[in-house]
From TrEMBL:
Pfam families: MR_MLE_C, MR_MLE_N. Coiled coil: none annotated. Pathway: Carbohydrate acid metabolism; D-glucarate degradation; 2,5-dioxopentanoate from D-glucarate: step 1/2. It catalyses: D-glucarate = 5-dehydro-4-deoxy-D-glucarate + H2O. InterPro entries: DgoD-like, Enolase-like_C_sf, Enolase-like_N, Enolase_C-like, Mandelate_racemase_C, Mandelate_racemase_N_dom. Residues 151-246 form the Mandelate racemase/muconate lactonizing enzyme C-terminal domain. This is glucarate dehydratase. Its EC number is 4.2.1.40. It comes from the Bacteria. It comes from Actinoallomurus acaciae.
């Protein structure tokens, strides 16, 4: 089996409402590039990549000379062909490699008639647990979505998601408003969901002093972990030494050199493995084995996935014996998907692992066409900007907080 063609299509799939985060916003949609890798036996493998609100079609087209004629089974050769570590200083293609690895594993699974999890050692669980993902958000009357800005609104939103999907772990994406205000929001979540586990993630924008103060202030709550309160391994290590809450990261341990540093001088207790950031499912599996050896906790990170990447997260979660924390997912914020059968469904806060060959998902061509047209209509958006604050950008550590008293108007 040899690769004969690669195709890329950019889609924009609507969100229930625009989501705000410490560095900007998701402007009411996820922009994703869908990758199809066709083999000379007629099989087609699927991949997916984000890109901060932008298309990656041109980047994938440029890889066609590297891929045509390549054997999808030769995944280690593929890694060095596309993302050689020295060449990557100039043309970092790790996320491109990830999308193509997804597609190659999908091809191999289809060729043998087995799910991807069987190629990775076999599953140890049939369903993968997920945390809710709670954002401040703009209102969107088109979808009946109210704003989330106040502690009361945040708590009500979390309770509604729990009722709808069965979540018992809740991740609060902060870093937008002053830390003392977000502490009030976090405490409101704890009061509204006293039996559930909580996570706070300001994406590393707090100062060292603020990170320590926030961590100490929440020590008495039912914390799952505190994720990236500050930026950098050294700053995380300082917070970890002074706060009695497990620290997690998806920003400062995203490759094996950083993982080695974290093993030698621990900064984070939990590593969130992202199938895109790490360059594919297989590198995440390797990293999880290192974490198991050194007793680091493992979760699965979300980078704004549609159903193809969610399938990669499910196959990864299925095979990890040391998946000690519920996975992340933006997925419940989506209004639709581009896969046959529509969106995956949560049951009791979990999603079932696909059982059909390969990744277990196929493209709904009508949906792909619909959301490719929507992308052409709306175009890209800057992930690292907020539509209500033109010209704003954050510092790290940040002191350019938004005003929590300012009500949010709908955005186009």
């Amino acid at each position: 089996m040899k690769i004969s063609d690669i195709r890329a299509t950019t889609v924009a799939v609507p969100l229930e409402a625009p989501l705000r985060h410490s560095n900007g916003a998701h402007w009411g949609r996820f922009v994703r590039t869908i990758v199809e890798v066709e083999a000379d036996n007629g099989l087609v493998g699927l991949g997916e990549m984000g890109g901060g609100g932008e298309s990656a079609e041109a980047a994938f087209r440029a890889l066609s000379p590297y891929l045509v004629g390549h054997d999808p089974f030769e995944l280690e050769a593929l890694r060095f062909k596309i993302a050689n570590p020295t060449a990557s200083l100039y043309n970092n293609r790790v996320q491109l490699l990830a999308a193509i690895e997804f597609a190659c594993l999908d091809l191999i699974g289809q060729q043998f008639g087995v799910p991807v999890y069987d190629l990775l050692g076999g599953k140890v669980r049939d369903t993968v647990p997920f945390a809710s993902y709670l954002f401040y958000r703009y209102p969107d009357p088109r979808h009946g979505a109210a704003e989330v800005r106040t502690p009361e609104q945040l708590a009500a939103h979390a309770v509604a998601l729990k009722r709808a999907h069965g979540f018992t772990v809740h991740k609060f994406k902060g870093g937008l408003y002053p830390p003392e205000y977000e502490l009030e929001c976090y405490r409101a979540l704890a009061a509204a969901l006293p039996e559930d586990l909580l996570r706070y993630d300001p994406n590393g924008v707090l100062s060292l002093a603020e990170g320590i103060r926030f961590g100490k202030a929440i020590e008495g709550l039912n914390n799952d972990y505190l994720e990236d309160p500050v930026f950098g391994l050294e700053a995380m290590r300082e917070v970890r030494g002074r706060v009695r809450v497990p620290l997690a990261t998806n920003t400062v341990v995203v490759n094996f050199e950083q993982l080695a540093s974290n093993v030698l001088r621990r900064s984070a207790d939990v590593v969130l493995l992202d199938t895109t950031f790490w360059g594919g499912i297989r590198p995440c599996l390797k990293a999880a084995s290192v974490c198991e050896t050194f007793h680091l906790g493992v979760s699965v990170h979300s980078s704004g996935e549609l159903g193809i990447q969610l399938a990669t997260m499910l196959h990864l979660g299925a095979v990890l014996p040391n998946l000690t924390y519920a996975a992340d997912a933006h997925y419940h914020h989506l209004m639709d998907d581009v896969i046959v059968g529509g969106r995956f469904r949560y049951r009791d806060g979990r999603i079932a692992v696909p059982e059909t060959p390969g990744l277990g998902v196929r493209l709904d061509r009508d949906k792909v066409a619909e959301y490719a047209e929507l992308y052409r209509e709306l175009g890209p958006y800057p992930y690292d900007r907020d539509p209500s604050r033109p010209g704003w950008y954050p510092l790290v550590p940040n002191d350019r907080w938004d005003d929590p008293a300012a009500e949010l108007a709908p955005i186009d």
